[in-house]
Amino acid sequence: MVTVSDDTLIPVDEELQPQSGSFVKGSGHDQLNSPQDDSDHQYRVFRLPEEESKVSRLEVAGEPDDPLIPVDEELRMHGGSYLYGSGYDQRNWPQGQSGDDHYRVLRLPDCWSSPRPWTAFQKFLGADPINPRPGLKWFGEQGYQWEPRFVAYGSYELFGVALQEGDQRKDGFGHQLLVDLNLDLTGTERFHVQFRPLGRKNSGGSFWQLNNPQHYDDNSTLIPDRYWFEGELNSIFGGLFDDPYTPGDYHVVVGKFPFILQNGLLINDDIVGVAVNKNTILVPPLSNLNAQVFYAFDDVDSTHTPSPELFGANLIADYRNAFIEFTYARLHESGDSELDADYAAASATQFFGPVTVAGRALFKWADAAAHGDGQLFVLETNWTRQFSDRWECLTGIEESVFYADFFKATSGWSPISGGNFDRLRSQFEVNPLVAISSGRSPEETIGAALGVQLFRHHEDESIIPEVSYEAPSGTSVWGVGVKYLRKIGARTYLDARGVRTWCDDESLEREGFFVSTVVIF
């Protein structure tokens, strides 16, 4: 217990003055602790005169009794609604020699809504809650609830072609129709079917050929071109097992589905089979490892075996700013084992800011009865560049992607399958890698392709000029090509392509153009 004597207590008036701050209101205390010399005039007195009344916040901010800004003016100038006002769609446009001709009005009509596909059961990308439907759930008492959503969409295309390839001439016009039907059960399970009624597989559509021989190339069919079910095992069977420590995030695809490996250089095809994928495998020092196994028993459009089976595995790893991929696959022909072939591929992609560099090495061996062993080596680079406001004002170009591909292929190389390349459009590709990956006759060759994709007017317009060089069997082939894509409506765009190649061998020369209008529904 601490005892304090009476003489230690400070009087109340003295206690308030030096300790509590009331000295500020006392006479002379407005200059408390100021230097006691001639420099006192440099200090401002912070004590207000006793006779002066308090000022309101409006008097401090501006003139006394200033009214608040009207609500409509506040919203118009500071709330963002000026974007919808008349004339404000051109706010802050440069006022120079370029004028406003290079700018498009950004303001949309008040009644405008973005195009959406036809849906049923649920809103397309809606934020509404999941409606409980008794019995519509996955297995088990705690099975995940279904949220059925049916979406139908597709496109219709009219195109015209004029092509001279070697001594073959093709002129005409045609059309293509794609219809996609998608039924989502949950966020990870769905059924999908695609029909190509006017152009089955990779034919590109049905075609009226005008030159000799004049005829109608009918590629119509009602057989679905793609059909598959995909889902996650944990979502489907998670209600049957109460074990939170066993990973169940295995993704499964069954049916006829598009399958692409090594950027389409190894395989780009619609196969009938099954694929199982496991993501988020943590193996230090990798930040992520994705493992995939696949088996196809039908519809593998190989270039040298009639009806092979395909099985293999693919690994994709993320390490720092690198993307690494390894693939092994085997083609097996049950009728002739000498047509069996083994494939292996390795690639690494490194990101250096806006620059991306990828190197790929693909190998084929044990192909005794067909083309023999073969290799393909590819170096891919691209550089994304944003342009200055002045350049955008002059040209309308906002950004671009410069790219360059270099490759070498041996005479025995052929991909597993390139059946998913559009036979019609691929004829207007100047990059030799497209022809090699689609299954062109193998031969020793080296080559390169350089180009740039220019985006204009908020990516509503794209221009892709490209040059190429190839030396198949030592014969030089030079080529130029250009693609032009333009959005011409809310659901319509224009696709125009042209190609020209030069070679001493006339059979390798190619010249033509392709124009199409696509309507999306």
Protein described:
With 521 residues, this protein is mainly beta. It contains six helices and 21 strands. It has an 18-stranded antiparallel β-barrel. Strand 5 and strand 6 (215-217) form a beta hairpin. The chain is globular and about 105 Å long. The relative contact order is 0.09. Residues 1-6, 18-25, 38-46, 50-62 and 97-106 have low confidence and may be disordered.
Notable traits:
single chain; 521 residues; mainly beta; 18-stranded antiparallel β-barrel; 6 helices; disordered N terminus
Task: Describe this structure in a few short sentences.
The protein is mainly beta and 521 residues long.
| Percent in helix | under 10%
Order of helices and strands: HHHEEEEEEEHEEEEEEEEHEHEEEEE
What are the low-pLDDT stretches, counting only 5+ consecutive residues below 50? 1-6, 18-25, 38-46, 50-62, 97-106
Count of helical segments?
Answer: 6
Taken from the alpha-carbon principal axes, the silhouette is globular
Rg, please? 35 Å
Question: SS-based structural class?
Answer: mainly beta
Quaternary status of these chains? single chain
How much is the average pLDDT? 82
Strand portion, in percent? 35-45%
Number of DSSP strand runs:
21
Describe the main β-sheet briefly.
Answer: 18 strands, antiparallel, barrel
Spatial separation of the terminal alpha carbons:
89 Å
